[in-house]
Amino acid sequence: MKNKIQTLKLEIRDTKYDEFENSIFFKLLQYLYRLLKIVFSKTFILLLLSATLTSCQSEEKIKLEQYYIGGKEIYEQNCANCHQKDGKGLQNLYPPIAGSDFLKNKDKVIWLIKNGSKDTISVNGKTFSQPMPANIHLQNLDIAEVVTYIYNEWKVDNKITEVSEVEKVLNKN
Ligand code: HEC
Q1: Among positive and negative, which fits the CA dihedral 58, 110, 100, 146?
Q2: Start and end of every Cytochrome c domain (predicted)?
């Protein structure tokens, strides 16, 4: 008799468990568990990370290209008359930009482009004393673009010169 009650109890427990196992709630839990396992798996995290990285990288690349193209146009309209399209300058009158050691100091270059220069300057050991006119009409973004163009085209660096860098130099006075 006691044994029979025992088995009956067990049977009831089993059916209850079966009911639970078949319930939507349990299926949902299982589903959630599988989803969490995927979300926290290493490969998934790596995949997500690399996707964000590549999208950031290509955004930077597109911005650099935009600055370069804009800067090239500004250079050809405002600078190439004197410094020449190929950046080699003109004899003793206009200093070269391509290969110029003056470009080492970017702050000075930004300042000079906006305000011009009446000094005598030295470029690669050669002195130049013609005045360079100021470019008051160029906005900070224009200057950032033209500097980005010059530095990339003549391989001083291969990054964007940000508008904030131009602002910093020109607000100094
Ligand atoms: C009218 C001619 C003329 C124009 C236009 C001109 N420059 Fe110059 N640039 C000069 C001269 C002359 C100097 C040397 C200035 C000095 O001796 O003080 C110079 C110096 C420079 C220098 C520093 C020296 C070097 O060669 O590395 C840079 C950089 C420069 N110019 C960039 C530009 C850019 C960018 C533009 C256009 C936005 C521009 N210039 C427009 C005549 C010009």
Answers
A1: positive
A2: 66-154
Binding pocket residue ranges, ligand 1, CB within 6 Å = 78-79, 81-83, 94-97, 100, 102-103, 109, 112-113, 117, 119-121, 123, 128-130, 132-133, 135, 146
Question: What letter represents residue 45's amino acid?
Answer: I
pTM, rounded to two decimals: 0.78
* Predicted pLDDT of residue 173: 59
- 29-68 pLDDT, tens per residue? 999 999 888 888 888 889 989 998 888 888 899 999 999 9
Q: Candidates 73, 74, 83, 109: which one to mutate for ligand 1, based on the most atoms within 8 Å of Cβ?
A: 83
CATH no. for 60-170:
1.10.760.10
* Residue-range domain boundaries for the chain: 60-170
- For residue 95, the ligand 1 atom closest to its alpha carbon is 26
> Exposed, middle or buried, 148 (CB in 10 Å: 0-12/13-18/19+)?
buried
Q: Which two tokens stand for residue 136?
A: 């008051």
- Give the tokens for residue 94: 């206009």
